[in-house]
Write a structure and sequence with these properties.
The protein is an alpha+beta fold. About 30% of the residues lie in helices and about 20% in strands. The chain has 7 helices and 12 strands. It has helices at about 20-35, 55-60, 75-80, 90-95, 110-120, 155-160, 190-195; strands at about 40-45, 65-70, 105-110, 125, 140, 145, 165-170, 170-175, 180, 205, 210-215, 215-220. The strands form 4 sheets. Strands 2-3-1-11-12 form a 5-stranded antiparallel β-sheet, with helices on both faces. A hairpin with a 2-residue loop joins strand 11 and strand 12 (about 215-220).
Length: about 220
């Protein structure tokens, strides 16, 4: 018997994706539970060019019973409350007002000094991403490239990036100075890739406390 072209086979094991609204609701509930279970809360500024790999190190370095929350500041404000009528804890809506894009929250039972020390311990240089603005020119000087880092097989990669490089005596040689990035000018995705190839880390992961709620008191240093 002919099968209708409109007939569709549906797998009984197919799992529906979680609805966005349900995901947001779960995030808000999880954040509220984390804040209610811990007396102190810190707003941490994290540069938009920081790489996700740094967040894992930050989580593991936090002292005591701590939880790191990343996400949209609008949902964070919903969880904490933005006025006296709906705030999760007394005066915590003041902390909610200090939240901006790029901020993270740390709920903890540890004192401020311990959190600041943990954040300082996580500072580390990292590769810049597209859009990062260098505070100085980055120039590669002409000459031989390290064979161990840059084998001849990378010639095509560097040529694609318009680098003045060629093969001499079985090694790559930069035949002229080459500016990889310019001062005060956002780098492109190609420049970010080139900086990574050249092992040049221009950005620094440097999380810092910009506001706190400790034992019921709000502070914005």
């Amino acid at each position: 018997m002919p099968v209708s072209k409109r007939a569709k086979k549906v797998s009984l094991t197919k799992v529906k994706k979680k609805a966005p609204r349900a995901g947001r609701s779960q995030y808000v509930d999880k954040l509220r539970q984390g804040v209610e279970a811990r007396p102190n809360l810190f707003v941490v500024e994290i540069d938009e060019h920081s790489r996700p790999t740094q967040f894992k190190a930050l989580r593991t370095s936090l002292p005591g019973d701590s939880a790191l929350f990343l996400g949209k500041q609008t949902l964070m404000k919903v969880a904490l409350g933005d006025c006296e009528e709906n705030e999760l804890k007394p005066a915590i809506s003041q902390l909610s007002g200090a939240l901006k894009g790029g901020h993270a929250l740390i709920a903890t039972d540890a004192p401020r000094a311990a959190i600041v020390a943990a954040l300082e311990g996580c500072r580390a240089p990292e590769f810049a991403t597209a859009g990062f603005v260098p505070d100085e020119h980055v120039v590669l000087e002409k000459g031989d490239l390290d064979v161990a880092k840059y084998p001849v097989s990378m010639l095509a990669v560097f040529k694609k990036m318009d680098m003045p490089v060629e093969v001499q005596d079985s090694k790559l040689v930069l035949i002229d100075n080459f500016r990889v990035a310019s001062k005060n000018k956002p780098i492109s995705a190609e420049q970010a890739k080139m900086l990574t190839h050249m092992d040049l880390k221009l950005h620094e992961f440097a999380p810092a406390v910009v506001a706190s709620y400790v034992d019921g008191d709000f502070s914005a240093p």
